[in-house]
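Design a sequence for this backbone.
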């Protein structure tokens, strides 16, 4: 049965929510467990659709996994298959990262090419150049990458021309099981990379510099089992903090540090919200209408691109004009058409959006196009006058654990209901 969120706008938000484990940290950690035949345990793993898809794929490759109460016990005694099919890579791009670990462990892999998606063309050239530098023979056949390690893979110097998060994860996990030294220059500096390095170190690799642009990895010919707690989700935290600021509320998010939130908090402060950081929590308080702020997205230490649709939601009701530039993805304004349906005044010019804040939004049926676009629409629905019906909420199931419970605990009125299929008309073009 298809479902939607029904959001009644106009409630002030107040209270405390706890963030779940970060999806984007959990995915590389889980995939890395196939580097070893020994058991691994991950704690604080969020119960999300993306995690379920990852586990489904790893089970196909030979993993045995049990997942309950946030604890994932996973073990891959031997690799049963070296193929990752298109259906799974399409459902979850991060599935592509099994390519390197399979190559390092058994010398071959066939992994479907992910292709583009709703936020951009998203090539994987940096992943493949890096694997080739480690000695992989890479070919393409029928929409898949077919890779072999003719000799053994060997540590190498790899220069990432752009600090791609996915390429950094992929090459870091692969290099951990490649004997010799690999130096990754131009690496992504995101906290999720640091978390991955922590797991790989606990498995036996020696890693220096994770979190900086140059990461040195002394790989091993075998890795052992390890245990790690997944870090809190900084994008989920941003979602609740921005919601609090938009609803003139007072919201505390537990389980995340100010440092992990990076530039998001600076922009919220510029918009007039006051921020207070505890040891492992961040609180936002706003009593007046937010003010416009202009910003660009960028890799860490810049503003996370995943927060852009959320801050754009805030800018759409702020006083004044905000200019927002997206530099990370080539097509990450897909949400703008739906934001306009709620009354936002946004002009697009290439990678720049000019947002003239409106006095109030008005609830309407809207459709999500990706995870963060969906979250942005939730935030706008919470501040809009009247009711917003949000469709295509499977995007939220990919990345937000117990979203309605968390928002309702803050005083929001949001519920998940079946869609009345009789009232739905589907037109093609
Ligand atoms: C990850 C995150 C995603 C986040 C993004 C940027 C996960 C599961 N997803 O995605 O939520 O929005 O980082 O912080 O962690 N690029 C290339 N060639 C490559 C690889 C990337 O040109 O080989 C380009 C991409 O097209 C994009 C940019 O680099 O324009 C950033 O992509 P990347 O950092 O790789 O993002 P993901 O790892 O896919």
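Sequence:
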């Amino acid at each position: 049965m298809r479902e939607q969120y029904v959001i009644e706008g106009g409630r002030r938000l107040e209270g405390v929510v706890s963030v779940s484990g970060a999806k984007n940290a959990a995915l590389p950690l889980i995939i890395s467990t196939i580097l070893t035949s020994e058991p691994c345990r991950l704690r604080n793993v969020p119960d999300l659709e993306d995690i379920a898809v990852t586990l489904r794929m790893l089970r196909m490759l030979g993993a045995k996994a049990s997942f309950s109460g946030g604890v994932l016990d996973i073990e891959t005694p031997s690799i049963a298959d070296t193929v990752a099919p298109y259906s799974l890579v399409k459902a979850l791009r991060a599935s592509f990262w099994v390519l390197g670990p399979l190559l390092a462990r058994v010398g071959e892999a066939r992994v479907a090419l992910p292709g583009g998606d709703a936020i951009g063309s998203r090539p994987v050239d940096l992943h493949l150049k890096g694997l080739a530098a480690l000695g992989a023979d890479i070919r393409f056949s029928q929409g898949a990458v077919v890779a072999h390690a003719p000799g053994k893979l060997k540590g190498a110097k790899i220069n990432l021309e752009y600090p791609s998060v996915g390429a950094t994860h992929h090459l870091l996990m692969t290099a951990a099981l490649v004997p010799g030294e690999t130096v990754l220059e131009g690496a992504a500096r995101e906290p999720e990379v640091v978390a991955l390095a922590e797991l790989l170190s606990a498995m036996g690799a020696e890693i220096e510099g994770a979190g900086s642009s140059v990461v040195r990895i002394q790989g091993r010919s075998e890795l052992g089992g390890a245990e790690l707690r997944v870090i809190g989700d900084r994008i989920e935290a941003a979602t609740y903090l921005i919601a609090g600021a938009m609803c003139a509320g007072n919201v505390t998010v537990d389980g995340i540090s100010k440092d992990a939130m990076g530039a998001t908090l600076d922009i919220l402060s510029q918009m007039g919200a006051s921020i207070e950081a505890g040891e492992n929590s961040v609180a936002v308080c706003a009593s007046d209408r937010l003010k416009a702020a202009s910003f660009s997205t960028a890799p860490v230490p810049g503003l996370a691109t995943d927060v852009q649709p959320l801050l754009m939601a805030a800018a759409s009701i702020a006083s004044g004009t905000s200019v927002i530039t997206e530099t990370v993805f080539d097509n990450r304004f897909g949400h703008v058409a739906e934001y306009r349906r709620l009354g936002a005044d946004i002009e697009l010019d290439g990678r720049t959006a000019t947002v003239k804040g409106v006095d109030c939004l008005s609830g309407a049926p809207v459709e999500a196009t990706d995870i963060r676009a969906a979250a942005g629409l939730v935030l706008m629905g919470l501040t809009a006058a009247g009711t917003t019906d949000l469709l295509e909420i499977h995007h939220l199931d990919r990345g937000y654990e117990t979203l309605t419970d968390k928002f309702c605990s803050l005083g929001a009125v949001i519920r998940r209901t079946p869609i009345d299929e009789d009232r739905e008309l589907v037109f093609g073009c």
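The first strand starts at residue 3 and ends at 8.
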